[in-house]
């Protein structure tokens, strides 16, 4: 009986371990229409909520009218998305506050990665770890590549 219990516990722990590894390493694709189509598309809170409710996968940039960074981070973000021919959505922070995402991310600037309508990750301007990502194109691209595929063949 103890042997069976030990086997069951071992199998459950293995399943949990595999699930955790999968979640930590799972990259995702954006919706097809956001590849091979560079746009810096301005959206409002209603459009964002619709994208969330229809389980879209997309990247959202929110910002306020002032910037604390030496290099304007929007230039870095736009450049990476243009180089990779992808769509980047932009929402002003005062409009972003009207979205359900504001419950989890309540400061700007930030870049949010959304997979099937769920927040996967975001840049935190209050984090020392993220600060360099805002100021370096290569670091921003590497951060994105940890979570999303930058290219998609049609």
| Strand numbers in spatial order across the main sheet | 1-3-2-4-5
Our Rg estimate from Cα atoms comes to 18 Å
The share of residues in extended strands comes to: 15-25%
Oligomer: single chain
Query: Shape, please?
Result: elongated
Per DSSP E runs of 2 or more residues, the count of β-strands stands at 5
How far do the termini sit from each other? 54 Å
What is the helix content? Answer: 40-55%
Catalogue the unreliable spans: none
Class computed from helices, strands and strand pairing: alpha/beta
* Order of secondary-structure elements: HEHEHEHEEHH
Q: Quick check: average pLDDT?
A: 87
Largest sheet: 5 strands, mixed
Number of helices: 6
What does this structure look like?
The chain is of the alpha/beta class. It is built from six helices and five strands, in the order αβαβαβαββαα. The protein has helices at 2-25, 45-53, 73-83, 93-96, 128-135, 137-147; strands at 39-42, 58-63, 87-92, 110-115, 118-122. The protein has a five-stranded mixed sheet, sandwiched between helices. Strand 2, helix 3 and strand 3 form a beta-alpha-beta unit. Helix 3 (73-83) crosses helix 6 (137-147) and helix 5 (128-135) packs across helix 6. The longest helix is centred in the N-terminal third of the chain and has 24 residues, at 2-25. The model has no long low-confidence stretch (mean pLDDT 87).
């Amino acid at each position: 009986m103890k042997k069976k219990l030990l086997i069951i516990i071992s199998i459950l722990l293995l399943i949990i371990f595999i699930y955790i590894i999968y979640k930590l390493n799972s990259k995702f694709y954006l919706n097809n229409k956001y590849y091979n189509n560079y746009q810096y598309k301005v959206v409002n809170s209603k459009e964002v909520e619709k994208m969330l409710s229809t389980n879209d996968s997309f990247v959202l940039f929110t910002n306020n009218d002032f910037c604390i960074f030496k290099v304007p981070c929007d230039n870095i973000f736009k450049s990476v998305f243009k180089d990779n021919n992808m769509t980047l959505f932009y929402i002003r922070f005062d409009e972003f506050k009207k979205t359900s995402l504001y419950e989890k991310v309540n400061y700007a600037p930030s870049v949010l990665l959304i997979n099937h309508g769920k927040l996967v990750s975001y840049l935190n301007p209050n984090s020392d770890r993220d600060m360099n990502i805002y100021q370096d194109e290569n670091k921003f691209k590497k951060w994105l590549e940890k979570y999303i595929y930058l290219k998609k063949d049609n």
